[in-house]
Amino acid sequence: MPDAGALEGIDPRHERLARLVLGARSVVALTGAGISVPSGIPDFRTPATGIWANVDPMEVAHVDVWRRDPQRFWAFYGHRFAVLGEVEPNPAHAALAELERRGALDAVLTQNIDLLHEKAGSREVVELHGSIAGAHCPACGHRADLAETLGLIETAVDGVPRCTACGGVLKPDVVLFGDMLPPVAVDRAERFAARADLMLCIGSSLVVHPVADLPLRTLRGGGQVAIVTTSETPYDDVAAVRLDGDVVDELTGVIAAIDRLRESA
Ligand code: ZN
């Protein structure tokens, strides 16, 4: 193989990360809101537009609001389900699915609830904050998928989807503010992180638990972390590679570098 930085027409940073991916035994990706921004999903923390411009999601998407005021809760969440359900994955999601297909990526650990990794073809996805796959009835355990939930919202006089078995108010399969994180998903993510020798942190500022701790588990296990995000993170100083450009440009650049390295091998 040629020396580092030897590939003509390839960004040396992309080549460096490509070499780390190809040389690693176990690679995992950790993704946040930034990977879905090119799909048209604004970061939860950036100011919303339209009818939700004056709504603080941190306040409405709270388990207490679901309990006390399901009508207000579902007016917001029903809109969110409908919008997110229509969104398509972008080339950054596709790049991760492609790496997994080639056997170069073990899993995607994600904070996102938008199902875009699954839609792009990723198979091993650990959803740390749940997803918009549907809703469930905490009273009896009955489940409704996304289409059924949207249908129930549409037909309910007050816009609140209720359990078709017992009449209880449905709760989205999403971790709400004030909810516990799903222990099984957190445990799986921690195990993937601990045994990875390379963690690709993509589109996350890595400040919210549990994603803030996952790169540390990889580092403690002797692995390396690479960061692909425009924002600063607490791991910038210890990252083996730091890519701060557009997430689609950076990831497609890394895939191109991997292709070139394989050709020249
Ligand atoms: Zn029920």
3D architecture notes:
- The mean pLDDT is 92.
- The protein contains 10 helices and 9 strands.
- With 265 residues, the chain is an alpha/beta fold.
- It has helices at residues 12-23, 57-60, 63-68, 70-86, 91-101, 116-120, 146-155, 183-195, 214-220, 247-264; strands spanning 27-31, 107-110, 125-127, 130-136, 143-145, 171-174, 198-202, 224-228, 241-243.
- Strand 2 (107-110), helix 6 and strand 3 form a beta-alpha-beta unit.
SS content category: alpha/beta
Kindly report the spatial arrangement of strands forming the biggest sheet: 3-2-1-7-8-9
The unique ligands bound to this protein are: zinc ion
CATH topology of the largest domain: Rossmann fold
Instruction: List the uncertain runs.
Output: none
The biggest beta sheet reads: 6 strands, parallel
The CATH homology group name of the largest domain: TPP-binding domain
Identify the CATH architecture of the largest domain: 3-Layer(aba) Sandwich
Question: How many strand units?
Answer: 9
Estimated share of beta-strand residues: 5-15%
| First and last CA, distance | 5 Å
Order of helices and strands: HEHHHHEHEEEHEHEHEEH
The total tally of domains equals 2
Average residue-wise pLDDT:
92
Q: What is the 3D form? A: elongated
Number of helices: 10
Computed over alpha carbons, the radius of gyration is 20 Å
CATH class of the largest domain: Alpha Beta
